[in-house]
Amino acid sequence: MGRFITLYMRQDSYKQRGLRNKLVKKLRLKGIKDEAVLSAVNKVPRHVFFDDALLPHAYEDKAFPIGEGQTISQPYTVAFQTEKLEIKKGDKVLEIGTGSGYQAAILLELGATVYTVEFNRNLFEKTKSFLPQLGYNPFFVYGDGSKGLAAKAPFDKIIVTAGAPVIPSALTDQLSDHGILIIPVGNRDTQKMVKITKKNTKLIKEEFDQFAFVPLLGEDGWEM
Ligand code: SAH
What we know:
This protein has seven helices and nine strands. The protein is an alpha/beta fold and 224 residues long. The chain has a domain at 63-211: Vaccinia Virus protein VP39 (Rossmann fold). Strand 1 and strand 2 form a beta hairpin. Helix 2 (14-29) runs antiparallel to helix 3. S-adenosyl-L-homocysteine is lined by residues 70-73, 96-97, 99-100, 102-103, 117-120, 123, 144-146, 161-162, 214, 216-218, 221.
């Protein structure tokens, strides 16, 4: 029975595709312009990341719980951060906060090579076994991503999908020249989206709107 439900949920039906199309239209109206990003949102079946009970909400432009007190980010937020990263095919991208794996799937659709770090052991295990079943294969890393991933640096792009108290210097250190870091920075409840571009070792900072992420934990994050 459980098995049947799983298989059923994995189907990408006409209805789900229609809802996804509507979501893309909504993102366009909200200001997302990058066609490659919009087309990635149109491809990734967000409903398969949802538990049965929340399934009807999969294509609403909202964040939802994914267990362990964590969330799958709002589609607008995913699209906003991804657009700011200006992903090119073959970019080496570091994601801090794997969560459900939805954001990683979007980055992979754009042709990036993705390293994704998760600090919650259960979520790490769950997503590591789930995401490849959809054909998405990032490198999964368990650990504290507030220090980046020195062993695999430098990265063309770094995306942090949890709210940080400060910009961890390890992350700007691990950016390649002309690299881009996108990170929400603020207090535990709301954060300002910050984009850092590295140009000949200089760091150029741009600030955007307020967002609400779950806290980035760890050494350069918030206390547990
Ligand atoms: N990108 C995810 C959303 C993640 S929610 C998605 O698309 O679904 C934020 C995630 O960051 C949570 O799973 C949380 O466990 C994780 N996290 C928090 N602090 C972290 C840290 N220091 N290193 C790695 N992951 C962290």
